[in-house]
């Protein structure tokens, strides 16, 4: 089992990184938050990893924190949730955002995440309530904090469909002001302004 990886970042893809260690390039799938914060090419990078062994492949998934990795592993334990959906969820918000959605039974926000429908959202809430530590979460009335996360995930998908890389989309979403309205069209305009300023 490969639990972590330190090496030189040699490529950033739309959903993965390639990290070279000892002359070997490791393809590591990662959530958008990791892709957006991984730094420049040819710099040293460290990731906590989760390895999945399949009959036809060995797959590595990379995370910035142990908390992210633990949440990814919890997500995989939910029936019907695979690595792709797990990454999609982790791209939609921080571990606290996801735990808050579960704690508040916010299936509407969860269902907005690409790859998750209403039934999967309900299953996530049902199965994760007993597995995640839901104490000490920031309080938000009616899932106010969770909604922007799902909106941001939708916005990032939209930017990628417009031809921006996943890393560029993440950077543009991160540049949005905290008080940005919960309106996809307005957020898109603000994100496109970011590209005009860089």
Automatic annotation (TrEMBL):
Q: Give the matching SMART domains.
A: HhH1
Provide this UniProt record's keywords sorted from A to Z: ATP-binding, Cytoplasm, DNA damage, DNA recombination, DNA repair, DNA-binding, Helicase, Hydrolase, Nucleotide-binding
| One GO molecular-function entry | ATP binding
Where does this protein reside within or beyond the cell?
Cytoplasm
What SUPFAM superfamilies would the database entry show?
A: DNA helicase RuvA subunit, C-terminal domain, Nucleic acid-binding proteins, RuvA domain 2-like
Q: Report the principal subcellular site.
A: cytoplasm
Please list where the region (Domain I) is annotated: 1-64
Q: Which GO terms describe its cellular component?
A: cytoplasm; Holliday junction resolvase complex
Q: Where is the Helix-hairpin-helix DNA-binding motif class domain?
A: 73-92, 108-127
UniProt GO BP: DNA recombination; DNA repair
Q: Name one Pfam family in it.
A: HHH_5
Give the residue ranges for region: Domain III: 146-198
> What domain notes does the record hold?
Has three domains with a flexible linker between the domains II and III and assumes an 'L' shape. Domain III is highly mobile and contacts RuvB.
Describe the family membership recorded for this protein in Swiss-Prot or TrEMBL: Belongs to the RuvA family.
Q: How does it assemble?
A: Homotetramer. Forms an RuvA(8)-RuvB(12)-Holliday junction (HJ) complex. HJ DNA is sandwiched between 2 RuvA tetramers; dsDNA enters through RuvA and exits via RuvB. An RuvB hexamer assembles on each DNA strand where it exits the tetramer. Each RuvB hexamer is contacted by two RuvA subunits (via domain III) on 2 adjacent RuvB subunits; this complex drives branch migration. In the full resolvosome a probable DNA-RuvA(4)-RuvB(12)-RuvC(2) complex forms which resolves the HJ.
Purpose: The RuvA-RuvB-RuvC complex processes Holliday junction (HJ) DNA during genetic recombination and DNA repair, while the RuvA-RuvB complex plays an important role in the rescue of blocked DNA replication forks via replication fork reversal (RFR). RuvA specifically binds to HJ cruciform DNA, conferring on it an open structure. The RuvB hexamer acts as an ATP-dependent pump, pulling dsDNA into and through the RuvAB complex. HJ branch migration allows RuvC to scan DNA until it finds its consensus sequence, where it cleaves and resolves the cruciform DNA.
Protein name as it appears in the record: Holliday junction branch migration complex subunit RuvA
- Where does this protein come from, organism-wise? Oscillochloris trichoides DG-6
Organism ancestry: Bacteria, Bacillati, Chloroflexota, Chloroflexia, Chloroflexales
List the gene name.
ruvA
């Amino acid at each position: 089992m490969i639990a972590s990886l330190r090496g030189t970042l040699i490529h950033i893809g739309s959903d993965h990184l390639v990290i070279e260690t000892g002359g070997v390039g490791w393809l590591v799938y990662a959530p958008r938050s990791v892709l957006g914060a991984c730094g420049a090419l040819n710099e040293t990078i460290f990731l906590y990893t989760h390895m999945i062994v399949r009959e036809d492949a060995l797959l590595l998934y990379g995370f910035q924190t142990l908390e992210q990795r633990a949440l990814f592993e919890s997500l995989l334990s939910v029936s019907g949730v695979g690595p792709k959906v797990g990454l999609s969820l982790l791209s939609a918000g921080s571990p606290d955002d996801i735990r808050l959605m579960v704690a508040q039974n916010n299936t509407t926000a969860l269902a907005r995440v690409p790859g998750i429908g209403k039934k999967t959202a309900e299953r996530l809430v049902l199965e994760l309530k007993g597995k995640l530590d839901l104490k000490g979460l920031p309080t938000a009335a009616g899932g106010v904090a969770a909604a922007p996360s799902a909106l941001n995930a939708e916005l990032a998908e939209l930017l990628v469909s417009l031809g921006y890389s996943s890393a560029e989309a993440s950077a543009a979403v991160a540049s949005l002001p905290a008080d940005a309205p919960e309106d996809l069209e307005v957020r898109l305009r603000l994100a496109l302004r970011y590209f005009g300023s860089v």
